[in-house]
Protein: YbhB/YbcL family Raf kinase inhibitor-like protein
Organism: Alkalibacterium iburiense
Amino acid sequence: MTRDPLVRLPEVTSFDVQATDVTPDQTFKPVHYSGKMGVEGGKDQSPALAFDNVPSGTRSFVVQVYDPDAPTLGGYWHWTMINIPGDLGGIEADAGNEEGDRVPKGALNMPNDAGFKGYVGAAPPAGETHRYFMVVSALNTEKLEVGEDTTPNVVNFEMNAHVIGRAVTVVEGSSP
């Protein structure tokens, strides 16, 4: 059974997102894998994302990377960044680093399922290929009023009433 993490979400306007520094066939490069989780050559570098055709009224974005194929009951949250200014056309590579030195002004990296704030790279079990849903949500508010340690699922709950658009791209990652 393949999990579709978007199936129960309300329909909203769609717009475009592109992971600009993955391979042409939409797979992660070695830097996008997790050195923290023991993947050789992994750098836990979040991919660069470009947004286009965003809905009118967008005041901020939330970016999330989610692996529904992880061997857990609830998948695995690799990254959540909130309060990205609505006038930006994307975010640069490695914006999810733990130092936070590439986070757009006003935005926040939130905790991931590895327990730190920022992006944790792909690390599928040996012999498996996983899908990594990169979801950009356009919101009608400048700021989500959540604490800095808010989990991805609570961020999802809090932003539901504000989502006016959604862009999705899926990138694959396989164990080396």
Summary: The mean pLDDT is 95. The chain has one domain: 13-174. The longest helix spans residues 152-159. Helices lie at 152-159.
